[in-house]
Design a protein that fits this description.
Layout: H1 2-12, E1 17-21, H2 24-35, E2 41-45, H3 50-59, E3 66-70, H4 75-80, E4 86-92, H5 104-112, E5 117-121, H6 126-129, E6 139-143, E7 157-161, H7 163-176, H8 182-192, H9 195-214, E8 219-223, H10 233-239, E9 247-251, H11 255-264, E10 269-270, E11 280-282, H12 294-299, E12 306-309
Parallel strand pairs: 2-3, 2-4, 4-5, 5-6, 10-11
Antiparallel strand pairs: 1-7, 6-7, 8-9, 9-12, 11-12
Helix pairs in contact: 1-8, 2-7
């Protein structure tokens, strides 16, 4: 059952191999631990998911793998951060929760010119909206818990890419043990059957909400790649099918005003998870990015007035 899921995910990503894991963070950990050794260096976006930043800066650093975080959108900063021992570029595009867009193809060109691999977290878009391997990436990572399942039922993760990489990931998986259960694989297979129609419908609704929020007098700013006002709108429309299903916005004020919006909602599910059949709402500074330092949150652009709608 797990093998069938892996074959279908590989096909969706236009890859030749895929390995499924117990969670999205397990997939990320496996991908990095398989590709890198102690003494190696990673250049990563400073706009990554909070738990990803924790893994890179707090856990992997204990094992001799260093990470330099740079602006998601500044290609020159990625190039300048390269060291002789740099082995991996890691990015998440669109980013969580500000939907910053990384130029996958350009970053792959920069990395590959120096013999550096590129891994992309494709959780927000799924292969329905974006295929990083087609743009030059060496590996794709997913939290299958999100849109691949699509109904908030199970945890799961996946790594997709050329078999010379995924075969090594599989060896690591069998030894380290973060395996996906066969039942969860069966549930995820059912999720894949509706992935395209869900992503297209949810993305259309997200655009409507983003447009409404952008005109709201109590909203300071809206972050959505499908809006012409988004700084990387043109790039997003080149490498994605549409703007996706995540909208973030800053309420005028700070935490108290943002929490008032959350507490006043009657229809949205208040949770940090995303990719469900129902719309969810979260306050990133106290949930998804609550475990990182205030300085790291500031560097990632996570303000106290920011809310994310999925």
């Amino acid at each position: 059952t797990i093998a069938v899921l892996e074959e279908r995910l590989a096909a969706l990503e236009n890859g030749v191999g895929a390995v499924c894991t117990a969670s999205g963070m397990a997939a990320l950990h496996l991908a990095i631990a398989t590709l890198l050794n102690a003494g190696d260096h990673i250049v990563a976006s400073n706009s990554l998911f909070g738990a990803t930043l924790q893994l890179l800066n707090t856990i992997l650093s204990r094992f001799g793998i260093e990470t330099t975080c740079v602006s998601q959108t500044d290609v020159g900063a990625w190039d300048a951060a390269i060291r002789p021992n740099t082995k991996l570029f890691f990015l998440e595009t669109p980013s969580n929760p500000l939907t910053e867009i990384a130029d996958i193809k350009t970053l792959c060109d920069v990395a590959h010119a120096r013999g550096i691999l590129v891994a992309v977290d494709n959780c927000f878009c799924t292969p329905v909206l974006q295929r990083p391997l087609d743009l030059g990436a060496d590996m794709v990572v997913h939290s299958a818990t999100k849109y691949l399942d699509g109904q908030g039922r199970v945890l799961g993760g996946a790594v997709a890419g050329p078999k010379r990489y995924t075969d090594e990931v599989l060896k690591f998986l069998r030894t380290a043990g973060p395996t996906l259960s066969a039942f969860n694989a069966w549930v995820l297979l059912k999720g894949l059957e509706t992935l395209q129609i869900r992503m297209e419908a949810q993305s259309a609704k997200a655009l409507q909400m983003a447009q409404w929020l952008e005109a709201h007098p109590k909203v300071a700013r809206v972050f959505y790649p499908g809006l012409p006002s988004h700084p990387q709108h043109a790039l997003a429309m080149r490498q994605q099918k549409n703007g996706g299903a995540i909208v973030s916005f800053e309420v005028k004020g700070a935490r108290s005003e943002a929490w008032q919006v959350v507490d006043s909602c009657e229809l949205l599910s208040i949770t940090a998870n995303l990719g469900d059949t129902k719309t969810t709402l979260t306050h990133p500074a106290s949930t998804t990015h609550g475990r990182i330092t205030p300085e790291a949150r500031a560097a990632a652009g996570i303000s106290e007035g920011l809310l994310r709608v999925a």
